[in-house]
Every structure is written in structure tokens, then in C-alpha cells.
User: Fold this.
Amino acid sequence: MAVAGRPGRLPGMSPPDSPSRYTGTAIVLHWLLALLIAGTFALGVYMHELPFSPARLKYYSWHKWAGVTILALSFLRLAWRLTHKPPADLPMPGWQATAAHATHHLLYALFFIVPLVGWAYSSAAGFPIVWFGVLPLPDFVPVDKALAEAIKPWHERTAMLMAALVLLHVAGAIKHQLIDRDGLIDRMRPARD
Assistant:
């Protein structure tokens, strides 16, 4: 069925001005953030149960540095996403499209929420963040031990929620690759020569 003034397209087909794959920058930011988030989450789970030691303090510093890096890259990724049109959605049932969009929006929100809550916890606990041991960052909130105790579980909860959404995202991508065979993953793979 054609829309007035436009040639007909099948439902789910990309509009003529829609790219068929993500830009190289979007792909690099996606995979870089994926690796950083997975590594930072794994480090957070590992270091959480360690006894107090110089190694634990070192891991906490690395965790904070990674969190600030994730936050900075998330701002860059969001700016890129807002200024560069993504590929059109692939044809899929409405509930799947809704679930995919909701998952992506929640992930984007958590890219900011998790590190900001961690930064607030670190500030409230009186542990300043010195990014890569060089750049001291301002305290996000004033030092307040009671506030730190109130914030701490929220950093863990939001990180767990993000981990669950990442698993859902990966499961959806695997479904598209192995069951639907619709080329969705190819849009986020680095270009092949």
C-alpha cells in the first residue's frame, strides 16, 4: 500500500534514507561499553567479598575508574545516537519491538544511573575518586555515612538490573541470529572487507 506522494513499501522495510547498519563509531562504542560493563560488573562481584587488603583497595580504584569511563563513554554514545540515525527496525511482532525498545531505553538510563549512584556512594562514604590516579573528581554528594549506607544497596540493585537487561539483550540477539536469521547482529558487527 502506498502513502500519498511516496512509493509503496512492505511493512518493516527501511525507509530510503535509513542506513542498513550502524556507523563505525556506534559499533565501536557499543562493543567497548559492552566489554567495560561486563568487566566492571565481574570485578565488582569479585571484590565485594574480599577481605580488607591493599589488593581490595586497588580493585575498588579500578572499579571506580572503569565506572567513570563508562559514564563518559555513555555521554559520547548518547550524543552520537541522538545525531546519527540508526537502522530501521527489522520486521517483528509488536510485543518484541516494544520489549526491544524498552530494554534499550532502560539500558541507556542505567549506563548513567549505575555509575552516578556508585559515585554518590563513594562520595558519601568519604572515598574520593581520582580517575586513573591522576584526575581528582569532585564529590558528588557531601560526606555522610548514613547517606552512604542508604545509597550502597542502590548501586548493587541497579547494577544487577543492568546485568539482567544485558542478558535479555544478548538472548534477543541470539534469537535473531539462530532462530529468525534476519541479519540483526550483522548491523552491529564491524565491517568486513
